[in-house]
Amino acid sequence: MFNLITLRDTVRIDPSRFGEPLEEVALDELKNKYEGLVDEELGYVISIVDLKVDPVGRLVPGDGGTHHRVVFTLLSFYPELQEIVEGEVVEVADFGTFLRIGPVDALLHVSQLMDDFISYDEKHGVLLGKETGRRIQKGDIFRVRIVAVSFPKGRSAGKIGVTARQPFLGRLDWIEEEVKRARGITEEEEAEEQ
Fold first, then answer.
1. CATH C-level class of 2-77
2. How far is 34 from 47, CA to CA, in rounded Å?
3. Is the pTM of this model over 0.85?
4. 84-188 to CATH, choices 3.40.718.10, 2.40.50.140, 2.60.120.200, 2.60.40.420
């Protein structure tokens, strides 16, 4: 889920940047501190979208810079357990796929893809279901449920695990087929509607 979060902080303005616009310098300092940060409370910080800087700064003994209070809004992505999201397959491997959900990649392990024996065709970079004939390849769009989230400290990526082995999850065209079966719509009836 994407969130706009308003925070308060203090930024230090280096003396070498005293002649520049205060908001521009403060924005640069906040970007360096927050953008790309992965935090348990904030999630994945994407961007600083708004800020207000107190023009009156404080001096700290022994420091030539000024310290200004700022109130700012940041855009973050916070994946929540059991949340349903859609993502694009960006990589296919023998152990599963990586889906781009928001600004990060989530692992969709082969055991969580479907109820079928799955083989990996390395030459074509696809996963194949033995009985269903379903294929998974780069560029496919999947609807999945988030089942695992870990937030390491700092700027490392963290880990997100997802599943497609529940009703009405999986590749979008598979879901459409499931919905039609649930409604009892046959292929002949579908052809007549078109």
1. alpha beta
2. 8
3. no
4. 2.40.50.140
- One-letter amino acid at 160 equals I
Using CA atoms, how far residue 110 sits from 155, 165, 190, in Å, is: 28, 10, 32
What are the residue boundaries of the structural domains of the chain, listed by start?
2-77, 84-188
The first and second tokens of residue 48, run together, are 């600083």
Q: What share of the chain is helix, strand, coil (3-state, %, to 5)?
A: 20, 45, 35
pLDDT tens-place values along the chain, 194 residues long: 899 999 999 999 999 999 999 999 999 999 999 998 888 899 999 999 999 999 999 999 999 999 999 999 999 999 999 999 999 999 999 999 999 998 899 999 999 999 899 999 999 999 999 999 999 999 999 999 999 998 876 566 678 999 999 999 999 999 998 888 888 876 666 666 65
